[in-house]
Write a structure and sequence with these properties.
DNA polymerase, domain 1, mainly alpha, hpI Integrase, Chain A, three-stranded antiparallel β-sheet, about 45% helix
Length: about 375
């Protein structure tokens, strides 16, 4: 494929004209009727210069225009043949910007692509029809396996599209076979608002200081679970009553970690969370880096991981007598509580959302007391 404009040039025959003394004449003094041909020239993606010769200028210009149109439409030189297993290695090296969790998800998608199409399949030969069959095969699981939820199917579509977009950017394919596949519509399943009374019940039912701290940071500071687990004592500023959610470089045997939407945000610490953090700091061991670490077993002193987290949280919820909810509902309840006191763009900033529509659509809920307040206001207006 040409990488620059395709040009048309005159290509003369024979030796360069000379004067009476045998010296070459400058190009401006060459005879107008000197025999010549016309050439179209361009540089290929390999860096080499190419040329094609024609009898007339019109033929050369017609070819140059068709060549330029092919470049604009992505129909230039055939991309170099690359098989799926080679592209998989290349892609994982190129995407060093992904978090470890995202990288694992992309590896899983690449493995599914390899199992469906074959490791030796050329990626430029995968058609949009085959891409649709790949997604359809993922939906239609065997009878002994659960059918994937629409959100899971949509995630596979997005990841496959992103993987092949990388191949398109590297000019390994001419078009993305997943570009035209639409995602399924997913209804909003809703979520459970956790009231301040339920939060206090959670704190009372928490079996340890560690659990009280994690619940308080989710409900009072709106931190995501990953942000809580990667929080260090260096991120907590007791004097200003603030904490930082910031990217963590690799430390020792630990991997680097990056927040979901923003590289840095500052979050205020209310009194409830500050009291628990103060208690946790007093109980922390000397040199302890992370706020929440394991206190038992061979991993004592290591950062708390996600294993069995949901199971343990649901046990605490049942013990507290709180309606069914998830740990993430604590963060959403934080946004709802905050929305009654500050403008929406402040809620977006403190929650770490890159798009305010995410805050408005998925993280706010109209509380019952506000519905009653609206009813009383209407009664007053309609008197």
């Amino acid at each position: 494929m040409a990488t620059e404009r395709v040009g048309v040039y005159r290509k003369y025959h024979g030796a360069i004209p000379t004067d009476a003394n045998g010296s070459p004449l400058p190009r401006s003094e060459w005879p107008k009727n000197r025999p010549c041909r016309w050439a179209a020239r361009w540089f290929g993606t390999d860096g080499a210069r190419y040329s094609k010769s024609f009898e007339t200028r019109k033929e050369a210009e017609r070819f140059a225009e068709s060549k330029q149109a092919a470049v604009r439409d992505g129909r230039g030189d055939a991309p170099p043949p690359t098989i799926l297993k080679e592209f998989e290695k290349m892609y994982l090296k190129l995407r060093g910007d992904l978090s470890s969790r995202s990288l694992e998800e992309h590896e899983r998608t690449l493995r599914r692509l390899r199992e469906f199409f074959g490791a030796d399949r050329r990626i430029d030969r995968i058609t949009p029809l085959e891409a649709r069959r790949f997604i359809s095969a993922f939906r239609q699981r065997p009878d002994d396996e659960p059918v994937p939820a629409p959100a899971t199917v949509n995630k596979l579509i997005r990841e496959s599209r992103r993987i092949f977009r990388e191949a398109l950017d590297c000019e390994l394919i001419r078009s993305n076979p997943f570009a035209g596949i639409r995602q399924e519509k997913v209804g909003d399943a809703g979520w459970q608002y956790v009231s301040p009374e339920h939060f206090r019940a959670f704190v009372t039912a928490a079996p340890s200081l560690r659990w009280r701290g994690m619940i308080a940071l989710a409900y009072c500071c709106g931190l995501r679970l990953g942000e809580i687990l990667h929080l260090t004592w260096g991120d907590v500023d007791f004097e200003r009553q603030q904490l930082r959610v910031v990217r963590k470089p690799a430390h020792g045997a630990g991997e680097s970690w990056t927040p979901k939407d923003k590289d840095l945000r500052i979050v205020p610490i209310p009194a409830n969370a500050a009291n628990v953090l103060t208690e946790a700091q007093l109980a922390a061991a000397d040199g302890q880096r992370y706020v929440f670490v394991n206190s038992k077993g061979p991993a004592t002193g290591d950062r708390v991981k996600r294993q069995n987290f949901t199971r343990d949280f649901q046990a605490i919820r049942r013990r507290a007598g709180v309606p069914k909810c998830t740990f993430h509902d604590l963060r959403k309840s934080y946004c709802t509580n905050l929305a009654g006191a500050v403008p929406l763009h402040v809620v977006q900033e403190l929650a770490g959302h890159s798009d305010i529509r995410t805050t408005r659509k998925h993280y706010l809920q109209v509380r019952e007391e506000l519905v009653e307040q609206a009813r009383r206001a209407l009664d007053e207006v309609l008197k």
